[in-house]
C-alpha cells in the first residue's frame, strides 16, 4: 500500500486529476503515412556507387572500434572479420551480405491494435522529441525536466492526431534516479497512452526491463512473436560501438525487438565537413551496426538511422535545418533504400531557444526533407528546441499540428473524373465563381488540409482577440489538451502487475544519479 | 530648381541622409540560382496528359472571355479562334502552337551588368513581395504603406545578398496618387538600387511610362534590343482577360519586354477545389495568355505563372503553405517545363499576421516547394505577411536570410576526391574528431551555409543578451541595414532626365486616388 501511495505521489496528480483521467475515451489518431507521391532522389547513381565503394574500403581498411565487448569481438571473428585489439576490420561485402537478412519492413504492435504501425517501404511514422534534459513552456520558462513534465508530454502525444507513436525519452525526468527513471518512463507510455513506444537503451539491464514490462503489457509469448518496441541505438561516431549501446542492441535483437542503428553526427566534428564524406562514414557505421544485429539474430528488425547536423564553424554550435543537413538526409535515404532497410532521420529540429520563426523555418526545412526524402521513422517529429537540449511544450503542439501538412502532402493527387472537375469548369465558366457549384459542395470538406492551431482569422477579429502569436495560441491549445485528456482504459490486472514489477525493481537497488 | 527641390522633399531624407547615401559602394549579391540538383516531378505522365487534354477542351469548348478589348478579339479571329461576343474559343492545339515562339529562357538586364539575371532552364531568380497596401514593423505596427516605406524596402532589397531583383510594387505607396505612384516606384528602383526590376501594369499608359523611363536609364535602343523588365500580368480567373492587364501586356510584348502570365487563384473560389481541376484551368489560362503575347510579337519573352492558394472552407479565408498549394506548385512546374516556358510561383507566402512561427512554417513550406519544383522566377520571396495584405519589414529580413538556404541546397553535392574526404576518414579514424584535421581546415569556410540573422549562441549568452526572438533580431538587422545603406552610383545626366520625365508626367494630369 505504501508502494502504491508512493507511485501515486510520484505521478503528482491529486484526487481530482485521477478522477478526470478515469474514463476511457479513445482519441483519433491518423494512420501512419503511406506515400502516394514519389520519393526525391537527389544523388546520382555515380555518387551512390562511390559512397558504397568507399564505405567498404572504410570497413575493410580502417575498420570500426568495438569497445569493452569481448563477446562482440568474438562474434565478429566468427563471422569472418579481422580482429586487432578492439579494432574490427570487415572484409569487403561481408557487412552488406549480413544485412540482407534484416527485414525491409516490419509491424510494430501497440496495445491498441488500431495504433499498430508499419515501418518500411512507402510508410512514414512520426515519433516525438527524444532526450532533452530541459523543458520550456510560457509559464515556467526553461528548467530541468521532471517526471511530471514527462507525463504531460505523453498525454499530449496521446491527444495529437498526427503523431503515431508515444516515443521514448520525450524528456529526461531528472527528478528520478538515473537507474530507475526508465521504469517510470515505460510505465507512463504503457498506461497514459495506447500508442506504440520505444524501450530503454542506457544499459543492457534496462533494455531487459523494457522487454519484461512489455511481457506484462502484451503477454510474454506475444513479445517473442512480435515486435512491440523500436529503440534507439546511437553509434559513437566516428566508427565506434560502445558496450552500453551494443549491450542494449543485443538484448533487443535477441528478443526480436527493433532497433534503430543511428550514427549521431555533428558534421565537421564527428564526420568530415563534406556531404559525400559524411555519407560514406554513415553508411560504414550503419553497415557494421546492422550486420552485428543480424549476427545476434538473423531477421531481427532494424532501421538505417542517420542523425546528422551541421556545425557553425565560427562558434562550434550545432546547427539544424541547414541545406547540408538536408543533402545528407536525402542521400542517406537513397543509401537505405539500396540496402532494402527502413530509414530513420530527425524531424522538427532547430537551434532556436524559443518556438519562434527561427524554430519554425528550421523545423519546416527538415520536415519537408523527411517527407520527400523517403524517411520511414521520423524521431523528433515534434517538441524539439535548442539543439535538443529542451523539450518545448508549445513547440510540441505547434509541430504536431504541422505533421498534418505532411499527411496531406503524402496523399498525392487524384486524377479520376471527380479530381478532373471538368463539370465544375463547364458549370462555372469564364468570370464565375466556384464556391457554390455542385463539385465544390460535394468535395470541400476533404479538399484542403486545415490546421487546428494556426490563425486564419480576419485581421480585425485577430486584433480584438489580443493579437496573439503562434506560441500563445499553442500554449492555450496545450492547456486545453491536458484539461480534456482522458486515460485510455487498461486491464486492472496489467496495471497492478506493472506496478508490482516497478516497485520490486526500485526496491532492489540504491538510487543512482550518475 | 523647384522641381529638384520637390523631388528631394518627396524622397523624405534630410541633409544628413543625403550625405550618407552619397558614396557609392557596391554590396554583394549572389548570382541567380542554378540548380545542380534534380527537379521533383510529383505528377505522373498519365495525370499530365489528362490535364493537357482537358485544358484544350476548356479552350475549344468553353473558351475564355476577352473583356473590353475589340482589337484583341480581332487578333484572335485572325489567328483562327472562334469569336462569340467577348467569348473566344480556341481550336485544339492552336494556343500551344502559338506558344512555341516564346523563348524557353531569357536574360533580363540590370543597369549594373553584374546583376543581370537569367530566367528559365535550371535557374531560380528571387524577387521580393509584391502588392501589399499595408506595412508592419515592430515600432509602428500595421499601417497603410507610404512611399517612404517603399524606398526602405528597395534599400533593404538592394542590401540583401540572396535577393536577385529589386521587384515591383513591394508595397502600395498609398500617399501618392494612384495615377502617379508608378513613376515614384520606378524612380526608386532605378536610383536606390541597381538590381533588375518590374514595370507597372495598372494601365497601358503606365506600362508605356515604364518602357520610356527604361529608355532613359538604359538607352532607347538598348531597351528595344534587350529585356530590362519582367512585369506581372494577372489573369482574372476563371478564364477572363481584362483590358487593363491585356493592355499592359500589349505594350510590354510589343517592346520585347517580359511578362508573367499568371492566373491568380484562391482554390475553391476561382478554380475547382481539386488539384487536377485547378491545374487544368491554370494551363488553359496560361496557354491563352502566352499565345496572345505571341500574337502581339512572336518571340516576346513570357513566363508561365501560377499563383494558387487554398481556402479555409470554414471561414473563406485564403490559406498559404498548405499541402494542396504545394501539389499545385509542383504540378504547374511540370506543365510549364512541357511547354518549354520559364515558370513563376509565389515564395514566402503565409497567412500569419506576425512574423512568428506560423509565418515561418508556412513560408518555408513554399520556399522548399519552389526550389524542388523547378520554379524559375519566385515572386514574394521575402516580406509577405497576412495573405499579402501586409509587407513586413522584419519578415522581409527574415525571409531574405532564408533564401541563402535555397542557394546552398541548389549547389548540390560534389563527389570529387575532395568531396569524398577519404583522407580525412583515414586520418581521424575510429573515436577521433575532425575539427582539426587537414580536410576540415581546407574546407570549413565554404562547407556549411551560415545565417546572418538566426541565433546559434549558447543559451547563457543568448539569455544575457536579452533572450531575443527572431522578430527582434530581424528588427535590429533591418535598422543596421538601413543605417549602413549607400546608394549605388548613377550618371547625373540620367538622374536629371528621369526627374524631368517624372515632373512633366506628374504636371500633365490631375491627381487620382481611385
How would you summarize the topology of this molecule?
Two copies of one chain form a homodimer.
Chain A lengths: L1 H10 L3 H8 L10 E2 L10 H18 L1 E3 L3 H10 L2 E3 L2 E3 L4 H6 L5 E4 L8 E4 L2 E4 L7 E4 L3 E4 L2 H13 L21 H12 L11 H15 L1 H6 L4 E6 L4 E2 L1 H12 L3 E9 L8 H22 L5 E4 L1 E5 L6 E2 L3 H16 L4 E3 L11 H16 L4 E2 L5 E2 L4 E3 H19 L5 H4 L1 H7 L9 H10 L11 H6 L5 H15 L7 H16 L7
Parallel strand pairs in A: 2-11, 7-17, 8-19, 10-12, 12-13, 12-14, 13-16, 16-17
Antiparallel strand pairs in A: 1-7, 2-4, 3-4, 5-6, 8-9, 14-15, 18-19
Helix pairs in contact in A: 3-11, 6-7, 7-8, 7-20, 8-10, 11-12, 12-13, 13-14, 14-19
Descriptive notes:
- The structure is a homodimer of 514-residue chains.
- Mean pLDDT of chain A is 94; it is low at 1-24.
- In chain A, 47% of the residues lie in helices and 13% in strands.
- Chain A is α/β, with parallel strands linked by helices and 514 residues long.
- In chain A, helix 11 (275-296) links the parallel strand 12 and strand 13 (302-305).
- The longest helix of chain A is centred in the middle third of the chain and has 22 residues, at 275-296.
- The radius of gyration of chain A is 24 Å and the shape is globular.
- Chain A has helices at residues 2-11, 15-22, 45-62, 70-79, 94-99, 147-159, 181-192, 204-218, 220-225, 243-254, 275-296, 323-338, 357-372, 393-411, 417-420, 422-428, 438-447, 459-464, 470-484, 492-507, and strands at 33-34, 64-66, 82-84, 87-89, 105-108, 117-120, 123-126, 134-137, 141-144, 230-235, 240-241, 258-266, 302-305, 307-311, 318-319, 343-345, 377-378, 384-385, 390-392.
- At the A-B interface, helix 3, helix 11, helix 12, helix 13 and helix 14 of A face helix 3, helix 11, helix 12, helix 13 and helix 14 of B.
- Chains A, B: Belongs to the trimethylamine methyltransferase family.
